[in-house]
Design a protein that fits this description.
The chain is mainly beta and about 375 residues long. The protein has one helix and 29 strands. The protein has one domain: Methylamine Dehydrogenase, Chain H, CATH 2.130.10.30.
Protein backbone atom coordinates (compact mmCIF):
# COMPACT_ATOMS: atom_id res chain seq x y z
CA UNK A 1 0.00 0.00 0.00
CA UNK A 2 2.87 2.30 0.85
CA UNK A 3 4.53 1.68 -2.53
CA UNK A 4 1.28 2.49 -4.35
CA UNK A 5 0.93 5.78 -2.44
CA UNK A 6 4.53 6.81 -3.21
CA UNK A 7 4.05 6.00 -6.91
CA UNK A 8 0.84 8.05 -7.01
CA UNK A 9 2.57 11.03 -5.40
CA UNK A 10 5.43 10.87 -7.94
CA UNK A 11 3.01 10.76 -10.90
CA UNK A 12 1.06 13.69 -9.46
CA UNK A 13 4.25 15.75 -9.12
CA UNK A 14 5.29 14.98 -12.69
CA UNK A 15 1.88 16.04 -14.01
CA UNK A 16 2.01 19.29 -11.99
CA UNK A 17 5.50 20.10 -13.33
CA UNK A 18 4.39 19.40 -16.92
CA UNK A 19 1.28 21.54 -16.43
CA UNK A 20 3.26 24.48 -15.04
CA UNK A 21 5.80 24.17 -17.83
CA UNK A 22 3.04 24.45 -20.45
CA UNK A 23 1.48 27.46 -18.70
CA UNK A 24 4.79 29.32 -18.38
CA UNK A 25 6.16 28.55 -21.86
CA UNK A 26 6.15 31.45 -24.35
CA UNK A 27 5.23 30.65 -27.96
CA UNK A 28 7.71 31.75 -30.62
CA UNK A 29 6.88 35.22 -31.90
CA UNK A 30 5.92 35.32 -35.56
CA UNK A 31 8.38 37.08 -37.87
CA UNK A 32 7.39 40.69 -38.64
CA UNK A 33 5.47 41.01 -41.89
CA UNK A 34 8.16 43.28 -43.38
CA UNK A 35 11.25 41.74 -41.80
CA UNK A 36 14.48 42.46 -43.72
CA UNK A 37 15.60 39.53 -45.88
CA UNK A 38 19.24 39.00 -46.91
CA UNK A 39 19.85 38.97 -50.65
CA UNK A 40 20.98 35.91 -52.53
CA UNK A 41 22.38 38.09 -55.29
CA UNK A 42 24.04 37.17 -58.57
CA UNK A 43 24.74 40.71 -59.87
CA UNK A 44 24.83 44.35 -58.75
CA UNK A 45 25.02 47.56 -60.77
CA UNK A 46 25.50 51.15 -59.62
CA UNK A 47 24.32 54.33 -61.33
CA UNK A 48 24.91 57.94 -60.35
CA UNK A 49 22.52 57.90 -57.39
CA UNK A 50 20.68 54.57 -57.65
CA UNK A 51 21.37 50.85 -57.40
CA UNK A 52 20.19 47.62 -58.99
CA UNK A 53 20.44 44.12 -57.55
CA UNK A 54 19.67 40.93 -59.48
CA UNK A 55 18.68 38.16 -57.09
CA UNK A 56 19.41 34.51 -57.82
CA UNK A 57 15.72 33.85 -58.58
CA UNK A 58 15.78 36.36 -61.45
CA UNK A 59 14.02 39.17 -59.58
CA UNK A 60 15.27 42.74 -60.06
CA UNK A 61 15.42 45.07 -57.07
CA UNK A 62 16.08 48.83 -57.15
CA UNK A 63 16.62 51.74 -54.78
CA UNK A 64 17.69 55.38 -54.85
CA UNK A 65 17.03 58.55 -56.78
CA UNK A 66 14.13 58.20 -59.21
CA UNK A 67 13.36 61.64 -60.67
CA UNK A 68 13.63 60.28 -64.21
CA UNK A 69 11.92 56.95 -63.55
CA UNK A 70 15.22 55.12 -63.56
CA UNK A 71 14.07 52.61 -60.95
CA UNK A 72 11.47 51.38 -63.45
CA UNK A 73 8.78 51.01 -60.79
CA UNK A 74 6.13 53.08 -62.59
CA UNK A 75 6.75 56.17 -60.44
CA UNK A 76 9.24 58.98 -60.01
CA UNK A 77 9.38 58.51 -56.24
CA UNK A 78 12.81 58.23 -54.66
CA UNK A 79 13.33 55.11 -52.52
CA UNK A 80 15.79 54.45 -49.69
CA UNK A 81 15.10 50.72 -49.49
CA UNK A 82 15.18 48.06 -52.20
CA UNK A 83 11.90 47.19 -53.91
CA UNK A 84 11.20 44.51 -56.49
CA UNK A 85 10.54 45.94 -59.95
CA UNK A 86 10.82 43.04 -62.42
CA UNK A 87 11.07 39.26 -62.74
CA UNK A 88 12.72 36.89 -65.23
CA UNK A 89 15.88 39.00 -65.47
CA UNK A 90 19.30 37.66 -66.49
CA UNK A 91 21.52 40.79 -66.68
CA UNK A 92 21.44 44.40 -65.45
CA UNK A 93 23.26 47.66 -66.14
CA UNK A 94 22.68 51.00 -64.42
CA UNK A 95 23.67 54.16 -66.29
CA UNK A 96 23.90 57.54 -64.66
CA UNK A 97 20.13 58.10 -64.86
CA UNK A 98 18.79 55.21 -66.93
CA UNK A 99 18.83 51.44 -66.76
CA UNK A 100 19.13 48.52 -69.15
CA UNK A 101 17.82 45.06 -68.27
CA UNK A 102 18.10 41.80 -70.18
CA UNK A 103 15.44 39.15 -69.66
CA UNK A 104 15.83 35.39 -69.85
CA UNK A 105 14.75 35.38 -73.49
CA UNK A 106 17.41 37.84 -74.64
CA UNK A 107 15.07 40.83 -74.84
CA UNK A 108 16.44 44.24 -73.84
CA UNK A 109 14.27 46.49 -71.65
CA UNK A 110 15.03 50.08 -70.64
CA UNK A 111 13.76 52.74 -68.24
CA UNK A 112 14.63 56.25 -67.08
CA UNK A 113 16.12 59.40 -68.53
CA UNK A 114 15.83 59.57 -72.31
CA UNK A 115 16.59 63.12 -73.47
CA UNK A 116 19.34 61.84 -75.79
CA UNK A 117 17.45 58.73 -76.90
CA UNK A 118 19.59 56.48 -74.70
CA UNK A 119 16.72 54.07 -74.11
CA UNK A 120 16.80 53.30 -77.83
CA UNK A 121 13.01 53.02 -78.13
CA UNK A 122 12.57 55.59 -80.92
CA UNK A 123 11.63 58.50 -78.64
CA UNK A 124 13.25 61.01 -76.31
CA UNK A 125 10.53 60.66 -73.68
CA UNK A 126 11.54 59.36 -70.27
CA UNK A 127 10.04 56.05 -69.19
CA UNK A 128 9.27 55.28 -65.55
CA UNK A 129 8.48 51.63 -66.34
CA UNK A 130 10.67 49.24 -68.31
CA UNK A 131 9.87 49.18 -72.03
CA UNK A 132 10.98 46.60 -74.58
CA UNK A 133 13.49 47.93 -77.10
CA UNK A 134 15.54 45.14 -78.70
CA UNK A 135 15.63 41.35 -79.09
CA UNK A 136 18.37 38.78 -79.55
CA UNK A 137 20.70 40.55 -77.11
CA UNK A 138 23.54 38.87 -75.21
CA UNK A 139 25.16 41.72 -73.23
CA UNK A 140 24.32 45.30 -72.21
CA UNK A 141 26.04 48.40 -70.84
CA UNK A 142 24.48 51.74 -69.83
CA UNK A 143 26.75 54.79 -69.73
CA UNK A 144 26.37 58.45 -68.90
CA UNK A 145 23.76 59.25 -71.53
CA UNK A 146 24.29 56.47 -74.04
CA UNK A 147 23.77 52.71 -74.23
CA UNK A 148 25.53 49.75 -75.79
CA UNK A 149 24.07 46.35 -76.64
CA UNK A 150 25.82 43.27 -77.95
CA UNK A 151 23.74 40.81 -79.93
CA UNK A 152 24.15 37.05 -79.96
CA UNK A 153 26.18 37.23 -83.18
CA UNK A 154 28.86 39.45 -81.63
CA UNK A 155 27.59 42.60 -83.33
CA UNK A 156 27.66 45.88 -81.41
CA UNK A 157 24.69 48.26 -81.35
CA UNK A 158 24.54 51.74 -79.80
CA UNK A 159 21.99 54.46 -78.97
CA UNK A 160 21.79 57.85 -77.28
CA UNK A 161 24.18 60.75 -76.83
CA UNK A 162 26.91 60.93 -79.45
CA UNK A 163 28.21 64.45 -78.91
CA UNK A 164 31.74 63.14 -78.41
CA UNK A 165 31.51 60.22 -80.83
CA UNK A 166 30.94 57.72 -78.01
CA UNK A 167 28.62 55.58 -80.13
CA UNK A 168 31.52 54.89 -82.45
CA UNK A 169 29.41 54.99 -85.62
CA UNK A 170 31.59 57.53 -87.44
CA UNK A 171 29.31 60.48 -86.65
CA UNK A 172 28.57 62.80 -83.75
CA UNK A 173 24.82 62.60 -84.20
CA UNK A 174 22.56 61.42 -81.40
CA UNK A 175 20.21 58.54 -82.18
CA UNK A 176 17.07 57.36 -80.37
CA UNK A 177 17.19 53.91 -81.98
CA UNK A 178 20.01 51.41 -81.87
CA UNK A 179 22.45 51.66 -84.77
CA UNK A 180 24.80 48.88 -85.82
CA UNK A 181 28.51 49.53 -85.37
CA UNK A 182 30.26 47.94 -88.33
CA UNK A 183 33.91 48.92 -87.83
CA UNK A 184 34.61 45.71 -85.93
CA UNK A 185 33.14 42.23 -85.65
CA UNK A 186 33.29 39.43 -83.13
CA UNK A 187 32.79 41.65 -80.09
CA UNK A 188 32.80 39.78 -76.78
CA UNK A 189 32.43 42.51 -74.14
CA UNK A 190 31.28 46.14 -73.92
CA UNK A 191 31.44 48.99 -71.41
CA UNK A 192 29.85 52.44 -71.67
CA UNK A 193 31.49 55.24 -69.70
CA UNK A 194 30.67 58.87 -69.12
CA UNK A 195 31.42 60.12 -72.64
CA UNK A 196 33.37 57.19 -74.07
CA UNK A 197 32.95 53.51 -74.85
CA UNK A 198 35.13 50.41 -74.69
CA UNK A 199 34.72 47.16 -76.62
CA UNK A 200 36.64 43.90 -76.51
CA UNK A 201 36.79 41.51 -79.44
CA UNK A 202 37.17 37.74 -79.45
CA UNK A 203 40.92 38.04 -79.92
CA UNK A 204 41.37 39.96 -76.67
CA UNK A 205 42.01 43.27 -78.43
CA UNK A 206 40.68 46.53 -76.95
CA UNK A 207 38.79 49.09 -79.00
CA UNK A 208 37.64 52.54 -77.86
CA UNK A 209 35.57 55.49 -79.07
CA UNK A 210 34.39 58.88 -77.82
CA UNK A 211 35.88 61.53 -75.57
CA UNK A 212 39.59 61.20 -74.94
CA UNK A 213 40.15 64.57 -73.29
CA UNK A 214 41.49 62.98 -70.13
CA UNK A 215 43.36 60.16 -71.84
CA UNK A 216 40.59 57.67 -71.04
CA UNK A 217 40.77 55.99 -74.45
CA UNK A 218 44.30 54.89 -73.62
CA UNK A 219 45.58 55.52 -77.13
CA UNK A 220 48.32 57.94 -76.12
CA UNK A 221 46.40 61.10 -77.05
CA UNK A 222 43.67 63.35 -75.70
CA UNK A 223 41.62 63.61 -78.87
CA UNK A 224 38.11 62.40 -79.68
CA UNK A 225 37.39 59.35 -81.80
CA UNK A 226 33.96 59.01 -83.45
CA UNK A 227 34.76 55.53 -84.74
CA UNK A 228 36.11 52.68 -82.66
CA UNK A 229 39.89 52.48 -82.88
CA UNK A 230 42.05 49.57 -81.77
CA UNK A 231 44.25 50.46 -78.81
CA UNK A 232 47.79 49.25 -79.39
CA UNK A 233 49.60 47.39 -76.65
CA UNK A 234 46.42 46.04 -75.09
CA UNK A 235 46.34 42.43 -76.25
CA UNK A 236 45.25 39.59 -74.01
CA UNK A 237 42.45 41.62 -72.43
CA UNK A 238 39.67 39.66 -70.70
CA UNK A 239 37.56 42.37 -69.01
CA UNK A 240 36.92 46.10 -69.43
CA UNK A 241 35.29 48.87 -67.40
CA UNK A 242 34.73 52.48 -68.46
CA UNK A 243 34.33 55.08 -65.71
CA UNK A 244 33.35 58.71 -66.08
CA UNK A 245 36.75 59.91 -67.29
CA UNK A 246 38.98 56.88 -66.78
CA UNK A 247 39.18 53.27 -67.96
CA UNK A 248 40.24 49.95 -66.46
CA UNK A 249 41.20 46.77 -68.31
CA UNK A 250 42.04 43.31 -67.01
CA UNK A 251 44.50 41.06 -68.82
CA UNK A 252 44.52 37.28 -68.93
CA UNK A 253 47.50 37.14 -66.55
CA UNK A 254 45.47 38.87 -63.84
CA UNK A 255 47.13 42.27 -64.20
CA UNK A 256 45.03 45.43 -63.94
CA UNK A 257 45.83 48.34 -66.24
CA UNK A 258 44.41 51.88 -66.07
CA UNK A 259 44.28 55.06 -68.16
CA UNK A 260 42.67 58.48 -68.02
CA UNK A 261 41.86 61.07 -65.40
CA UNK A 262 43.71 60.60 -62.14
CA UNK A 263 42.86 63.72 -60.16
CA UNK A 264 41.69 61.68 -57.18
CA UNK A 265 44.11 58.80 -57.61
CA UNK A 266 41.43 56.65 -59.27
CA UNK A 267 44.02 54.90 -61.46
CA UNK A 268 45.57 53.49 -58.30
CA UNK A 269 49.15 53.81 -59.56
CA UNK A 270 50.45 55.84 -56.61
CA UNK A 271 50.17 59.23 -58.33
CA UNK A 272 47.55 61.79 -59.30
CA UNK A 273 49.00 62.29 -62.77
CA UNK A 274 46.79 61.70 -65.81
CA UNK A 275 47.80 58.75 -67.99
CA UNK A 276 47.05 58.82 -71.73
CA UNK A 277 48.18 55.22 -72.19
CA UNK A 278 47.37 52.19 -70.06
CA UNK A 279 49.72 51.56 -67.14
CA UNK A 280 49.89 48.43 -64.98
CA UNK A 281 48.69 49.01 -61.42
CA UNK A 282 47.79 45.70 -59.72
CA UNK A 283 48.22 41.93 -59.99
CA UNK A 284 46.15 38.88 -59.08
CA UNK A 285 42.91 40.55 -60.17
CA UNK A 286 39.76 38.72 -61.32
CA UNK A 287 37.16 41.51 -61.74
CA UNK A 288 37.13 45.31 -62.12
CA UNK A 289 34.71 48.24 -61.90
CA UNK A 290 35.33 51.93 -62.66
CA UNK A 291 33.07 54.51 -61.01
CA UNK A 292 32.84 58.27 -61.41
CA UNK A 293 36.15 59.03 -59.70
CA UNK A 294 37.05 55.80 -57.92
CA UNK A 295 37.93 52.24 -58.87
CA UNK A 296 37.31 48.77 -57.47
CA UNK A 297 39.33 45.63 -58.12
CA UNK A 298 38.46 42.12 -56.96
CA UNK A 299 41.39 39.78 -56.46
CA UNK A 300 41.23 36.05 -57.14
CA UNK A 301 41.39 35.34 -53.38
CA UNK A 302 38.12 37.23 -52.82
CA UNK A 303 39.64 40.40 -51.38
CA UNK A 304 38.31 43.75 -52.60
CA UNK A 305 40.72 46.59 -53.28
CA UNK A 306 39.81 50.25 -53.87
CA UNK A 307 41.42 53.52 -54.96
CA UNK A 308 40.44 57.08 -55.79
CA UNK A 309 37.95 59.63 -54.51
CA UNK A 310 36.63 58.96 -51.01
CA UNK A 311 34.91 62.17 -49.86
CA UNK A 312 31.77 60.31 -48.77
CA UNK A 313 33.27 56.93 -47.95
CA UNK A 314 32.92 55.28 -51.34
CA UNK A 315 36.08 53.22 -50.76
CA UNK A 316 34.64 51.80 -47.55
CA UNK A 317 37.89 52.01 -45.59
CA UNK A 318 36.43 53.96 -42.65
CA UNK A 319 37.83 57.34 -43.74
CA UNK A 320 37.06 60.14 -46.18
CA UNK A 321 40.63 60.41 -47.42
CA UNK A 322 41.30 59.73 -51.09
CA UNK A 323 43.74 56.96 -51.93
CA UNK A 324 46.03 56.99 -54.98
CA UNK A 325 47.09 53.37 -54.48
CA UNK A 326 44.80 50.36 -54.23
CA UNK A 327 44.18 49.18 -50.67
CA UNK A 328 42.28 46.18 -49.35
CA UNK A 329 38.84 47.08 -47.97
CA UNK A 330 36.74 43.89 -47.80
CA UNK A 331 37.09 40.10 -47.87
CA UNK A 332 34.97 37.20 -49.10
CA UNK A 333 33.73 39.09 -52.16
CA UNK A 334 32.43 37.61 -55.43
CA UNK A 335 31.18 40.63 -57.44
CA UNK A 336 31.57 44.43 -57.41
CA UNK A 337 30.09 47.65 -58.81
CA UNK A 338 31.39 51.22 -58.54
CA UNK A 339 28.83 54.01 -58.98
CA UNK A 340 28.74 57.78 -58.76
CA UNK A 341 30.14 58.19 -55.25
CA UNK A 342 29.25 54.83 -53.76
CA UNK A 343 30.12 51.16 -54.14
CA UNK A 344 28.34 47.80 -54.06
CA UNK A 345 29.66 44.30 -53.46
CA UNK A 346 28.30 40.76 -53.32
CA UNK A 347 29.89 38.39 -50.84
CA UNK A 348 30.36 34.70 -51.57
CA UNK A 349 27.22 33.88 -49.55
CA UNK A 350 25.13 36.09 -51.86
CA UNK A 351 24.67 38.95 -49.41
CA UNK A 352 24.90 42.53 -50.70
CA UNK A 353 27.08 45.18 -49.06
CA UNK A 354 27.30 48.92 -49.74
CA UNK A 355 29.31 51.99 -48.77
CA UNK A 356 29.59 55.70 -49.60
CA UNK A 357 27.09 58.34 -50.63
CA UNK A 358 23.49 57.71 -49.63
CA UNK A 359 21.85 61.10 -50.16
CA UNK A 360 19.44 59.62 -52.68
CA UNK A 361 18.91 56.36 -50.80
CA UNK A 362 21.16 54.55 -53.26
CA UNK A 363 22.63 52.25 -50.61
CA UNK A 364 19.19 50.85 -49.79
CA UNK A 365 19.72 51.00 -46.03
CA UNK A 366 16.29 52.50 -45.28
CA UNK A 367 17.77 55.93 -44.53
CA UNK A 368 19.86 58.59 -46.30
CA UNK A 369 22.95 58.51 -44.10
CA UNK A 370 26.30 58.03 -45.79
CA UNK A 371 28.39 55.01 -44.82
CA UNK A 372 32.17 55.05 -44.41
CA UNK A 373 32.43 51.28 -44.00
CA UNK A 374 30.82 48.37 -45.82
CA UNK A 375 27.28 47.69 -44.55
CA UNK A 376 25.02 44.76 -45.41
CA UNK A 377 21.74 45.75 -47.09
CA UNK A 378 18.50 43.82 -47.37
CA UNK A 379 15.18 43.58 -49.17
CA UNK A 380 11.70 42.90 -47.81
Amino acid sequence: MKKILITALILTAILMIFSCSKKNSTPAAPAPANAPVPFQAMAVSAGAFHSLVLNSNGTLWATGENAFGQLGDGTTNTRNAFEQVMTGVSAISAGWYHDLVLDNGGTLWAAGYNTYGQLGNGTTTQEDSFVQVLTGVGAISAGGFHSLALDNNGTLWAAGDNSNGQLGDGTMTNTDTYVQITVMAGVSAISAGGLHSLALNNNGNLWAAGDGGNGQLGNGTTGEENSFVQITGTTGVTAISAGEYHSLILKSDGTLWAAGQNTYGQLGNGTTTQENSFVQVLTGVSAISAGASHSLALKSNGTLWAAGANSVGQLGNGTTTEENSFEEVLTGVSAIAAGGSFSLAIKTDGTVWATGNNAGGELGTGDTNNRLTWTEVYHQ
